[in-house]
Design goal:
Order of helices and strands: EHEHEEHHEHEEHEHEHEHEHEHHH
Radius of gyration: 21 Å
Shape: globular
Structural class: alpha/beta
Number of strands: 12
Low-confidence stretches: none
Number of helices: 13
Mean pLDDT: 95
Strand order of the largest sheet: 9-8-7-10-11-12
Strand content: 5-15%
Helix content: 40-55%
Amino acid sequence: MHDIAYDARWHGAFGIGRYSHELRSRLTGNVYDIVAPGDPVGARGLFEWERTTRRAHRQKRILLSPSFTPSRLWPGPQAITVHDLIHLDVFSESSRPKKLYYERHVKPAIRRNDVTFTVSEFSKNRLVEWTGVESDRIVVTGNAADTRFSPEGPRHEPNYPYIFSVRSSKPHKNTPRLISAFAELPRDDVHLVLSGHPDADSLAAASRGGVSDRVVFEGLIPDAVLPNYYRGASVVAFTSLYEGFGIPAIEAMACGTPLVASSTTSLPEVTGGAALLVDPSDVMEIARALSRALTDDRLRKGLREAALGRAAQFSWEDIASTVMQTLSQIR
């Protein structure tokens, strides 16, 4: 078994950051963290990453990254984790530099390496299609919610019922359509509580819908209290246009809160029949699903029971075990 040199630049309060932290904390054996200065995907960060990894190499170490940045100068085996191809598949979040990086660095690494990790069958199929590698060289680990996400515990309790959504201002998160759907609901006592800071498109959608006073932007919600928001919500909405996995879906289900999620990309696979699925491009379909999830008690009970069972099928321990067993087979 190789010792592991771990790319520890990715910890943080975002999807890849959570994956990185949870995986690293469960790896066993001789694991050495590698940290390089600069933004991991910025020009300086990429340069420093190459320089640092070249110096850090030791015999029989394998370089493991929780993200899509391989090292071209690492002389030994390595494995990267490509969570999705959003930088290629979503026009508004792509660019010529991003496309060049994927073509010149990511694709050759996937073709060269013995194994590449990803987080869903959806992403695996996209990687096989894009690179032409054999499917058994792409290994799906999944994602999970840790034990803090459960039905038991404190709840966020404002003086109103609310729909909760974990999002950012990136276009694929589809926040303006969610706000427009929220504006169609007949109830005027319900609020829409959103993580992250307001952006111009979301504020405009709230203004057009006449719901600016009921759309609440909470900013960055600390991990320590994030489960409280899921537990306190009447419904969780996760209506992204594109997800490689979608950790908030698992977190919501682990808390037993009824979930309305997109019927596209990875989310049907991840939710496994335990969510109310909608076309994320259809505002009225989202609105109807939110209304049902708020008012249909029988549906709410069924979603809760199914969600808890589905979330229990994902664990960080299983993910770390999959990674360790896969790396042990690399010569």
